[in-house]
# Entry
Amino acid sequence: MNFKKRLMTPGPTDIPPSVLAEACKPIIHHRTPQFRKILTEVVAGLKRVFQTNNDLLIFPAAGTGGMESAVVNLCSPGDTILTASCGNFGNRWTAIAKAYGISVEHYEVEWGGESDPQEIKKRLAAHPEIKVVFTTLSETSTGVDLDISAIGNIVAQTPAVLVVDAISGMGATPMKTDEWKADVVIAGAQKGFMIPPGLAGVTISSRAWELAKTSKIPKYYFSWEKAHKAMTAEALANTPYTPSVSLIMQMAESLRLIEEEGMENIWKRHARMAQSVRSAMEALGLKLFATGRPSNVVTSVCVPEGVDGIKLFKTVRDTYGITLAGGQGKLKDRIFRVGHLGYADDWDVVAAVAAIERALNEQGYVMEIGAGVTAAEKVLFAAE
Ligand SMILES: *Cc1c(COP(=O)(O)O)cnc(C)c1O
# Structure
């Protein structure tokens, strides 16, 4: 049987048909009122999802481009920054900063765990020279969500600026930019926003703008100042260089779907899917990898003794049509990850659990067939 294809990775995600259809429309020129009106609406819609009144810029780039823009616009060579990392994506902050000659106070917890806001407070007190704290909303490599609200309250009491990589979490799990005092927040396109990869959104508070004024790292394409000028010089938004016109049109449709469902309902849907996958995996006798607050975006599962994790992942993808994610870096064959974000619903979750059961069974893993699906369904039923 040729199984229906499903992307259940923490980005890219499947795309709703009406969003896909936007990409087939003829390109409109970007220096027209027609396009600039769409861009203006997209910026306003994104601000509602980010829950912010701060400035919001859009770059045609991978999410990592948005991260790099934060480093080059906020820092100067020789500055000290603090990275609060729980995994591969937290570590990316350190790698970008080091590439620009910035000295990094690197706070990393054992993978699977969660950064302790009190430890961040301690390090900020010990190093008053720290100008920026970089962290992550959903650490996608380990499936852990950080307490940005607590971290935001701590950083706001110091002169440092807080930068949050919300690339996988935004639009799936709560991220209240202004309420949580996050100065700079970055999101991507291909995760909670359900559009193809290639856009990065960045919000900037007045505190962050103050620091940006002092930044001495050379920049051009990623200059916030240039992008902001184009965005705000006239009534309709503009961009300094050619924007990804089709992606912006797709984002407009995606934002329409997001507003139709409502942010609170979207967060609830993701929490329900995540709970259902966690419960299913445990019912199959599998151990969850996260020891910190488990993510609503992606569930990381330990590969059990006697099972080949890479083979399991390939069977689920190549035989059963469902693309999960493997482990990253040192977790490569130790975990597999089930993405449940964006354009995903109860049936996707049940299908993924059923496919994992089959693939486990094929490797001789002992379990009761259907135990995972039953546990998943119990959670979904109860939530109805
Ligand atoms: C996916 C992801 C990124 C990287 O996004 P790209 O678009 O691949 O650059 C960064 N941070 C987190 C938390 C992610 O999940």
In short: The radius of gyration is 21 Å.
